[in-house]
């Protein structure tokens, strides 16, 4: 406690970025909770298939999001 | 807001059906919420492995559900 | 199957709107899945406390969203 | 109702163990709920990629957890 | 790991039944996982507002489910 | 995208701490994703009733966790 579920589209983030996401989100949460809760703090990634995530009714593929990221 | 998570068994729906699910569920929700919330309305598909979904204690495979769908 | 979880901020939607959300989202999904899956189609609302939902790092209250909805 | 989501790291449990998880967790819940709710009791497995689950800020791979299980 | 989320309608189960649900579901899962994973096994209850859970398009209240349970 | 769900036991964190959790977790995620995804980054808090969260089969109350936090 807490349990933090990070939902992402599969294929958008590299393994290295996914590792940084779970590590850095853990540290951000623990800084608020306090070190006593570190052992009970779980942070996980859940992946959604490309094309299976719509924003405003418009489905997005991994490539759509990669292009968006690249646009800075 | 809202965030809508559609959990399904992998292998039951085609990519085309998954696209229609996220689009049509988005439109149904936005019709209630109002257009102002369209940009913040996220609808996603999360997949469960075949055999990893039990109803009443009985695990179902994609094939079980396909047969059920075909039975009309 | 499917199981559809609609996450919203508490206090934004009236009971009537929440009823319409679960009903209309059910019908939109069943129209794609087929009537055979109607009895196994679950659609639920999960509520987040006001101030407990951030978009782009900015926490939103029910009032923020109500004002947004009213702005049309 | 209820809907029970069992989140695990992919590659830790065999298909047989996943089947037993959804069956045994179903029976444990139904024993409390009562038989009348059996047809509406859904238990599913959601998988997280290996390396995508951190405890206390430390990401775990399937192999880490397998070694832990083997240590008894 | 695993993390088990038990979604229920608020007002259906007593505190005592909710305690038994998280305890008995924990034991059922640990019997499959093995004792080595006991310290990392989290089982939680998430509550949905009465009227906010539809099966087959029909919203259910706590009273509907209580009547169903009583019908045995 | 991403959507980040922070599950906590109700009554453990103050409103101020919950605000800091959603803000700081947002910034930690955006630092990895990139600023282009800030507008689509949602971070929310979902609360579990006190006594409705078991670790290793042992249910925890808000007071249990507060005592743990205080123990430093």
UniProtKB/TrEMBL annotation, chains A, B, C, D, E, F:
<keyword id="KW-0413">Isomerase</keyword>
<protein>
    <submittedName>
        <fullName>Tautomerase family protein</fullName>
    </submittedName>
</protein>
<dbReference type="InterPro" id="IPR004370">
    <property type="entry name" value="4-OT-like_dom"/>
</dbReference>
<comment type="similarity">
    <text>Belongs to the 4-oxalocrotonate tautomerase family.</text>
</comment>
<dbReference type="InterPro" id="IPR014347">
    <property type="entry name" value="Tautomerase/MIF_sf"/>
</dbReference>
<dbReference type="Pfam" id="PF01361">
    <property type="entry name" value="Tautomerase"/>
</dbReference>
<feature type="domain" description="4-oxalocrotonate tautomerase-like">
    <location>
        <begin position="2"/>
        <end position="61"/>
    </location>
</feature>
């Amino acid at each position: 406690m807490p349990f933090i579920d990070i939902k992402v589209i599969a294929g958008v983030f590299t393994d290295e970025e996914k590792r940084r996401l779970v590590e850095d989100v853990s540290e951000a949460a623990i800084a608020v909770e306090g070190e006593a809760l570190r052992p009970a703090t779980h942070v996980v990634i859940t992946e959604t298939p490309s094309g299976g995530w719509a924003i405003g009714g418009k489905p997005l593929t991994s490539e759509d999001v990669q292009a968006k990221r690249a646009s800075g």
